[in-house]
Specification:
The chain is α/β, with parallel strands linked by helices and 285 residues long. The protein has one domain (9-273): Glucose Oxidase, domain 1 (3-Layer(bba) Sandwich). It is built from eight helices and 14 strands. The protein has helices at residues 4-15, 19-28, 69-72, 120-125, 133-143, 165-169, 184-194, 215-222; strands spanning 41-43, 62-67, 76-80, 88-90, 111-118, 130-131, 151-155, 181-182, 198-201, 226-229, 240-248, 256-264, 269-275, 278-284. Helix 7 (184-194) runs parallel beside helix 8 (215-222). The longest helix is centred in the first third of the chain and has 12 residues, at 4-15. The structure holds N'-Formylkynurenine. Residues 55-56, 59, 84, 90, 204-205, 217, 229 line the site of N'-Formylkynurenine. Pfam families: Cyclase (PF04199). GO terms for molecular function: arylformamidase activity. InterPro entries: KFase/CYL (IPR007325), KFase_sf (IPR037175), TAT_signal (IPR006311).
Amino acid sequence: MCTGPGRTGVTRRALLSGGAGAAAAVALAEPAQAAGRHRGLRDLTHPLGPAFPAFSPGEEAARGTVTTIPDDGYYMQQWRLIEHVGTHVDAPAHFTPGGRTSTELRPSELIRPAVVIDIAERAARDADTVVTVRDIQAFERRHGRIPDGAAVLMYSGWGAKAGDPDAYRGADAAGTLHFPGFGTDACEWLLRHRAIGCLGVDTLSIDPGDSATFDTHRALTGADRYGLENLAGLDRVPRHGATVFVGLIPYEGGSGGQARVLAPGEWSGVGRRLVSGRVRVVAAW
Ligand SMILES: N[C@@H](CC(=O)c1ccccc1NC=O)C(=O)O
C-alpha cells in the first residue's frame, strides 16, 4: 500500500547523474540501517482514497470529480472526509475537553526527533499486543536514551495490511477490532520520564484495537500531546536518529487531520544535472 519510498527512490536516482552520483544512488537503494544515520527521504504516508480502511465502518473517504479539463478547462475533485481517516494526527482536542486543536499545534511540534519501537515479531503472533514499558527499556539499552520531545513510533508490521481492510481492522464476529497499539503504562512512562512530543503507530489507533476505553488516547491528549495514526513505511526508518516532519493540515477547530508525514534523512549529496541546456548543481535526497 505504501508507494512513497519506492517513488522517492526513483526520483533520487533520476536526480543523480554519473560517477560518484551513480554509486551513491546504488547505496541509497539499500534499506535504512537499523540504527543511527540514514540517507534519503522516507514517506510515512499512505495514499488516501475510498478503499483505505476507516476506524469505524462507513467513515471511509469519499471522492468525486467536480470539474474536468475537457468540460471546464480545469480538473478538480471534491472529498468527504472525517478528520481521522488515512494517515493523520489526533490533536489534544480529540479526547481532551479544551485540548488544543490542529491550528494550535506549533510548527516546532510538528518536526520531531524520532525513534521506532519494533514489536513486529510479537504482533505477528498476537494482534492484541501492545508496546510496554519493558519494550521501551529494552530499546534504550540497545539504542540509547529516547530524546526528550521525541516522536515515539510503533512499528508492528500492520502497515503492510492496509490494502486489505478486513486484515487491517481485524474485526472479530462481535465487531471488536484487533491490532496493536501503545499500552497506557508505556504512554504514561514516556510522558513522565521522557517528556515525549508525540506517539505514532502503523495501525488505526494509538490504543490497541480491542480497547473500549481509549486510555492511551486520554493519557496522551490529556498531557497536551498529539498522536499519529496509520503511518506507513516504518520498516525503512532507522530505529534511532531519524526526524519526522508532520505536514498536518491546519483545519480550524480540528480534532486532528490528515497529514503528509515524512522522515528526511541526510542529503545523499549533490549531483550535476542538465537543466534547460545548462549544467546545474542539484541537491538530492
Ligand atoms: N484516534 C482514532 C480513534 C477515533 O477516531 C475514534 C475513537 C472512538 C470512537 C470513534 C473514533 N473515530 C471515528 O469514528 C482515530 O483517529 O482513528
